Structures are given as structure tokens and as C-alpha cells.
Amino acid sequence: MHYVILRDDDTNALTPVECLERLYRPFLDRGLPINLAVIPEVRTDVRLPNGEPEGFLLAKNAPAPETIPMRDNEKLVEYLLANPGYHILQHGCHHDYFEFDGDDRADIVRRLDQGTRNLVQAGFPRPHTFVAPYDKLSEVSLREVARHFCVLSTGWFELGRLPLSWWPRYCLKKLRRTPHWQTGHTLLLSHPGCLLSSNRSCDTMLDRIRESIANQKLTVLVTHWWEYFRKNEPDERFIQILHQTADYLATRAEIRVIAFDDLIEQNVPLN
What we know:
Blueprint: E1 2-11, H1 17-29, E2 34-38, E3 41-43, E4 67-69, H2 74-82, E5 86-91, H3 105-122, E6 129-131, H4 139-148, E7 151-153, H5 167-176, E8 180-183, E9 186-189, H6 205-215, E10 218-224, H7 236-251, E11 255-257, H8 260-265
Parallel strand pairs: 1-2, 1-10, 1-11, 2-5, 5-6, 6-7, 7-9
Antiparallel strand pairs: 3-4, 8-9
């Protein structure tokens, strides 16, 4: 059996319900869980290093508050709670660029707690899985995330950033060439890049997804909802590929699509 987790990043208080519904109704109708990495209290002025505003702010209207917590978008919260196929992960706190790349332990703990509190206040269950903005995690952040969460989902791990006590398990993971590993009670998952991305060719995207799933016991497929609606226009070809992915995942007997919480509750093998 091959296991697949679909992770969509950057849902926030400015995300239009219609975007998520358009993308994921084919998954929800097939009983395929969608793991949404939700920004608890999105910063509305966050920009990329090149100065461009972040894509997940596409529905922002000026002027806007400096931050907006998820609970302020009642329509979105009600939609997510009404569709139990959505599973909520914690995606940082504000989604600042270097939010969890520092060494100030008190600040990191404050951001982790504030993010969790915002999601719970919105009405969601306490999240068990953490996704760092831009996959940037300092050694201090890694320690605290492992203390607060059962699962960390990220793109990669760097030896120089890991706590020293994690090195033996990390080296064993590298020797075995496995993408996922564990420290204490925390599962540490990496992914094969954003295979569902507007930066990739639609002509080969589904083939790459099939190859990745076939070569791993557990594959985390990462995408970003806003990439399907650049400039507020739906990318019909890209959306079609996403929906073809739903067809593929739902019709293959050897594939089971799961939520991150299933790793904890059902003891799903990592590698």
C-alpha cells in the first residue's frame, strides 16, 4: 500500500471560500482528505524578498488591518467546519518571512502559542501538525515545534540546524535514504518539492506525481491554492491537472489518501 497526504498551504482569513470549493470539491466528494496549512493570523503586508506581495493576499482590499485572525472570516470558518474532509494544520502564526528562523526562544514559543490559540478560538480542533512559513526553522524552533506538535511537515532538514541530540537519528535516516523520520514522539516528514505547482509543466505534472507515489511508502503532495488563481483568474489547465490527480488517487487500489492525524491515530508506516 502507498499512502498519500495532500497538503495545501496558505489558507487564511482573506482566502475566498469559492477558491477552495472550486479546487477541492472533487476530492471531498470522493472522501479524500485535504490537509490545509492555515495561517492563524495573517499579516496583510507580508512581501517576498523581491518586494512583491505574497500570492495568498490576492483577495486583500486596501486599506486592511495589519493582521487578520481566521475567526474574523466567519463564512470561511463555517465552510471548513461544515466539510469534515478538511483537516486543519498550523502554518506559522502571521507568515512573516523569518518568523521561525531566529534564536529567541520566548518569541518562538509566543508565536506557536498565539497561532494555536487563534485557530482554537476560530472553532477548529487544536492542531497536531505544524508547517513553517517558507520551511525556515532554526534549531530553537525545531526543538519547540517538536515539544508542541506531533508532526512537523517541511521540505527538507539540514544537519547544521538540527539539535545535536537529533543527529544520530538524522544520520541513520540519510544512510537509509528515507524521506521521513522521528525524534521522540514527533514525526518529521519531508516532501519531494511542490509537485502541484504553477512553476511546473502541466504536460508532465501528473507523471511526476505518479512516479513519486510509486517510489515511496508515504508521499506528501504540496500545493498552494492561490497558484490556481493568479491575477484573480482561474488557471483552467492547472485546475484540470489537480482534478485529474483526484481521479487518479481515488481509483488506484494500491493508494490510500490519508490525513496527517492518521499517522498518529492509525500507526501508518512512514517508510
